[in-house]
Amino acid sequence: MSSKTPLTYKNAGVDIDAQNEALAQARESILQSSTPGVLGNVGAFGGLFDPAKAGCRDAVLVSSADGVGTKLDVAKRAGIYGTVGRDLVQHCINDILVQGARPLFFMDYVGTGRLEPHVVSALIRGCAEACKDNGLALLGGETAEMPGLYRDGDFDLVGFIVGAVERDRILDGSRVEAGQHLIGLRSAGLHTNGYSLARRIFFDELKLDLNDRPEPLGGASVCEALLAPHLSYLELLWPLLEQDQLAAMAHITGGGLLDNLPRVLGQHDAHIACDSWTPGGLFQMLVQGGNMERDEAFRAFNMGIGMVLIVPDEHRAAVCAHLESKGEDVYALGRVEAGKGQVHLH
Amino acid sequence: MSSKTPLTYKNAGVDIDAQNEALAQARESILQSSTPGVLGNVGAFGGLFDPAKAGCRDAVLVSSADGVGTKLDVAKRAGIYGTVGRDLVQHCINDILVQGARPLFFMDYVGTGRLEPHVVSALIRGCAEACKDNGLALLGGETAEMPGLYRDGDFDLVGFIVGAVERDRILDGSRVEAGQHLIGLRSAGLHTNGYSLARRIFFDELKLDLNDRPEPLGGASVCEALLAPHLSYLELLWPLLEQDQLAAMAHITGGGLLDNLPRVLGQHDAHIACDSWTPGGLFQMLVQGGNMERDEAFRAFNMGIGMVLIVPDEHRAAVCAHLESKGEDVYALGRVEAGKGQVHLH
Question: Which of A19, A33, A89, A313 is the most exposed place for a label (fewest CB within 10 A)?
């Protein structure tokens, strides 16, 4: 009825030393992401954050959870673990930014089959560095080694963000009106969406290798194009939010322009001129390689637009001037009109 | 160079209809977990929560991220998906409760290989029902279908909690003093910790089946014993926190009594009399079946103690009276003495 040699947690596949090693390797980056709101209490059960010390009192909290999706598979094939943490953090930042919130703190979760310290620490450091660059704290997280549940070498990376917005500054679509302008901002590529389909097209249909540099990618390798980090629009757009120049925003993630814009349209339609921008070579390869129908492509991918601003006519010139002063391409996608919450591609 | 039949997201393995179906099945439970702090905004990018409407202004936020670990594997083998959500929520609640915080809201993440709506909706409903029972809101979440990253049938479940505590009520160990009492509260079993080792002992060493009812389990099946939900100590302990009768608390999770108590001991040691309680038959089977050394067992498992209260002498009688009035077994584990942050088992 009993095991001959004493069993330990480690020989059941859970190596607490490896966990500690991963955290030690990420520790300096985590500490560098600290902000005035963080109440230092290393080793505590939960992370403590004082919104008042971060300059916000009596604000509404905005929170979002997300993963990186199968962009992780590309990172794993390439052996590049340092960028997907940034993808995750910046995706989460954009998700609350579109409601008018600035980020306060972030928590990460890494689930693995067998914990390799250099992989896990690179994932966490990527999160921490993106937090630092965007002015939020990596407040805590969890690393779980789950033999049997994930295969060796497999992992998932999940993030949670909390931000704050003043009550009268919440952007929820209620300020959207007919006649307002749709302004698109470029994405850096797929961001964190559409990778299951993109992998199938690039690797199975087009039979490309990560190191190939097909002509439409303009010199970039498949790996570089697919792992380009999700852009954060926080620094670019925060001045416009402070000056209250936007009626609404939509972060173009899963579901693309067709499913994300309706989240803020209410009883309006968005009319988009597809010739107002040119999706990059990456998207052209995906559409052609997958022989994709237009609407399917516009749901599966962001098609080169990572963020859409809905701008009242009186602020349009100032908004465009700000964006252009930052070196940003400004795509005049079209207009909002009376309707029923649909997106029309013209 | 191109696919003959048009490719879609669905034939790349991502089924948005299945995702919507899962959410539809969980929707009623999610809505029922709503609290006055939730600003209704279904379909928004992030969840909005107003702490003032939840009765807390100018409080410190306490946040924690966690998973269920390989208890998920037991749930999967048993085909029982309704309880692990509760495990996750109640684990997270305890993690912030020990710092004096009451929970405000929770976010869930489900990662899967192939999204089966009845599985995912059961996972989310389990979270939502536990949120409702504990008075916090399931504010949002993410469901990700990641073909190739998880195998069909595999999934992970991750949670993130935010709570609040008044600045002068934060429990961080600073009130711990020599002479204070260590009071243990029973766990319902392994809670969410030690499952990789427990599965190895039960299934590989003892060759037991989920439906077996070995005598030490007192009539329960292996499945019932292993899936017993993680207890929430919120309702039981909140009155003691409101009356400020506790010096500190430790949630006994990964690392057991030996690694969790030191988080609040500071420059004190905890002296625990191992004869002050009897670990249930489940723990006796694990120790014997794994031929485990005592300290290893006390690090891998909670050994029947899910929470430890550190109680000043002047409040001991009142604390014990409260716990006993709620029908709780009160284990007088021992005392805190001057030391250096260690746990001594006697």
Answer: A313
A139 with A55, same domain? yes
Structural domain harbouring B54: 16-169
Within A24-128, strands assigned E span 38-39, 47-49, 60-67, 102-112
Judge if A118 and A213 occupy the same domain. Answer: no
Residues A161 and A252 in one domain: no
Interface contacts A/B by beta carbons within 8 Å? 294
Q: How far is B288 from chain A (nearest CA, A)?
A: 6
Considering only the beta carbons, identify the residue of A50, A60, A65 that sits closest to B142: A65
Instruction: Kindly state whether residues B206 and B77 are assigned to the same domain.
Output: no
pLDDT, tens only, A179-196: 999 999 999 999 999 999
> Is A299–B151 a contact, with Cβ atoms under 8 angstroms apart?
no
Measured in angstroms, the CA of B329 and the nearest CA of chain A are apart by: 24
Whether residue B94 is found in the same domain as residue B223: no
> How many domains does chain A contain in total?
2
**Structural domain contains residue A201:** yes
Q: A-chain residues within 8 Å CB-CB of B73?
A: 146, 148-149
CA A77/CA A63 separation, integer angstroms: 31
List Cβ neighbours of A277 (8 Å cut-off, separation of 6 or more): A184, A186, A304, A305, A329, A331, A333
* Residue B21 burial class via C-beta count within 10 angstroms: exposed 0-12, middle 13-18, buried 19 and up: middle
Helix (H, G, I), strand (E, B) or coil at A181: strand
Check if the interface score ipTM surpasses 0.90. yes
pTM of the model: 0.95
